[in-house]
Amino acid sequence: MAVVAYLRVSTEKQFLENQREEIVRFAERNGMSIDKWYTETVSGSVSSKERKLSGVLDKMRPGDSLIVTEISRLSRTLLEIMTILNSCIKKGVILYSTKEGYVFQNDINSKVLGFAFGLMAEIERNLISMRTKEALARRKQEGKHLGRKKGDMPKMKILAENKKQLLKEQKKGTSCSELARRMGVSRTTMFRFLHHKR
């Protein structure tokens, strides 16, 4: 019976080593020896069928154990988590989640816990998405998008009306900073305005 560890991070900036160390400690505490390690850098919102995880699950046999640091390492969606848990239960694979301290196997408690964790992961993902959209909408409304200052927004129309003259001045060697000073906008706004393809 094989013991498999699965580690996943969303970006290369995150560290797999923390997950590895936690799984090693878990295995030692429970008298287990890791036979295979699988690691990948991919978003949890990507379907498990398009990830290394799919191949890992296909190779597992009844009595094997799969260890992850937390359920969200399997997926960020409720449907995916439930599908993976159901697949493990049907195959007789025991799934360990080290941070939560739960064991998912073929019993009713595991099925209920799997649903609860999956639901929490789905809700949290939706909340993060909603907060991000609201923050972006608020920044846009305040005129903070595209690196512009709030005070620059009313002046964009004036810049547009004087674009030909500004470009002529720029060709003559007038600096972006000087043009920005004359028009009363930030240098960044002037630079983006003059170099933006329209």
UniProtKB/TrEMBL annotation:
<keyword id="KW-0233">DNA recombination</keyword>
<dbReference type="InterPro" id="IPR050639">
    <property type="entry name" value="SSR_resolvase"/>
</dbReference>
<protein>
    <recommendedName>
        <fullName>Resolvase/invertase-type recombinase catalytic domain-containing protein</fullName>
    </recommendedName>
</protein>
<dbReference type="InterPro" id="IPR006119">
    <property type="entry name" value="Resolv_N"/>
</dbReference>
<dbReference type="GO" id="GO:0000150">
    <property type="term" value="F:DNA strand exchange activity"/>
</dbReference>
<dbReference type="InterPro" id="IPR036162">
    <property type="entry name" value="Resolvase-like_N_sf"/>
</dbReference>
<dbReference type="InterPro" id="IPR006118">
    <property type="entry name" value="Recombinase_CS"/>
</dbReference>
<dbReference type="Pfam" id="PF00239">
    <property type="entry name" value="Resolvase"/>
</dbReference>
<feature type="active site" description="O-(5'-phospho-DNA)-serine intermediate">
    <location>
        <position position="10"/>
    </location>
</feature>
<keyword id="KW-0229">DNA integration</keyword>
<feature type="domain" description="Resolvase/invertase-type recombinase catalytic">
    <location>
        <begin position="2"/>
        <end position="143"/>
    </location>
</feature>
<dbReference type="GO" id="GO:0003677">
    <property type="term" value="F:DNA binding"/>
</dbReference>
<dbReference type="GO" id="GO:0015074">
    <property type="term" value="P:DNA integration"/>
</dbReference>
<keyword id="KW-0238">DNA-binding</keyword>
